[in-house]
């Protein structure tokens, strides 16, 4: 058998479409709390930092889920992992509707985040096994499911939120997740034959030698960089709705800006994926990090409605390709049989950065009464990320996949 019959094949692209559909539904658990945050804050009478805690614990669960479910994917395959994750996600939604306090609501979101994680890192790791030459665009498209989810579902659920309240929204999301993800997950039972790992294993080993670093060292460097970039990324993504409410524009305007930001992120991820197939994940990661830092600066002088729409679109276009690039770097430099665990670890660190940044920005707002210092804090963390990735780029020279070898 030739690797061309398995990797980058027609089946690979069909699997990619199914995976993207799953990601678009499964990832909504990451964004739901952002949309309902003003309603929750008003109901429980909490401050901005306290009302950010459900999001923070969602991201903590999401982070742990990327690591734990990633390990399960390495061992049992993606289908069983997804079915178990759906049970956790649906339970998180339903239990949240019975929460009597903000503290209890935060704990239920830990479970919700844990299950939602299956729609991100584990799906990215799984699809990466089915591509070699076009892995960049494949990973970018699956990662785009996360942003498509955030761009599409808040708008679709806005009417239900207004008429039925946030609890009705959560009941609806529980039902939709079960009805859509489980049937699609059953279509992904096929697994890559063991011999098909040979080509990607050879490519990653060649790249790893070029860095002079162990896989563990590289993994931790990527993790630290991921925290830095995602603390910065979280400021607009987590607080844009609350920011617009504070400016007097209302939650609907904030939700539109979030959707615009995330749609820009989808475009960015696709373009970054195409470019990564030529330039490599490290170079694209550095470019995205620099562009994100520039975009964050534009939030400082502008707070008018029209400028905020433009800056939010620019921010989405700047940063969308960053997180998928971490997964690409892992797959370019580390063994494929460890993909679930390695990708899961790095995704966990990026998500912990989002969780930390989401809480930190709320705390800064409570202390200062505005978001200016929160944006500056994000810019500083972004600088740490740029330094690390710049250092890694100087040390690494990724090799492009060679002509398709015979494996049997």
UniProtKB/TrEMBL annotation:
PROSITE patterns: MFS. Pfam families: MFS_1. Keywords: Membrane, Transmembrane, Transmembrane helix. InterPro entries: MFS (IPR011701), MFS_dom (IPR020846), MFS_trans_sf (IPR036259), Proton-linked_MCT (IPR050327). Residues 1-397 form the Major facilitator superfamily (MFS) profile domain. PANTHER family: MONOCARBOXYLATE MFS PERMEASE (PTHR11360:SF290), MONOCARBOXYLATE TRANSPORTER (PTHR11360). This is MFS transporter. It comes from Phaeobacter gallaeciensis. The lineage of its organism: Bacteria, Pseudomonadati, Pseudomonadota, Alphaproteobacteria, Rhodobacterales.
